[in-house]
Amino acid sequence: MSNAIFPTLPGITQVVQFYPQFSTKVQVARSGREYRTSLWANPKYDIQINFEFLRADARQEMQQLVGFYIARQGSYDNFLWTNVDDCSVTDQVFGTGDGKTASFQLMRSLGPAIEPVQNINAIVNVKVAGTATTAYTVSSTGMVTFTNPPGAGQALTWTGTYYYRCRFTADTQEFDKFMNQLWSVDQLDMTGCLGSAI
Questions:
Q1: Are strands 12-21 and 44-54 parallel, antiparallel or unpaired?
Q2: Which of 51, 54, 86, 105 sits at a 20 to 30 Å CA gap from 67?
């Protein structure tokens, strides 16, 4: 598992298409009644990045992008990607104390959906009942362990940023030179998640 970060390059215009996906097993009885089993607790995301252009004299930028793809060996290795539309939380609730439990998984909500966050970029603060604390540790998978278990009914919140863990979906990628010193990447397809399933 790689912690390489997808490059942010100057002169790139990105249009991101973002599709959540699940895996559901559907069995139909003779009566026509359906029985369904969800095979994944959390979604994976199909992500498509379209680069309209890479600016003139962008040889170094192209080398960085091509080199990043080659270093991942196509779809073999994973990496961390910042979804600019979903990469941070402010005072996000991730648990409620019960006086006994000391460890809680960081979470983020997207409307009514709540997902665990495992690829942490930075934590600005962690609060217990609205008061910031430093009496905790955070694992590499976003598990917060408090020195003393939070009291019963105390809300736990965090503010910070996170990544999606992704991989390229294809082992071949086109990088086109369409004019002198102008490059395009019509489409980069990735699969990603907020956890470590990729």
A1: antiparallel
A2: 86
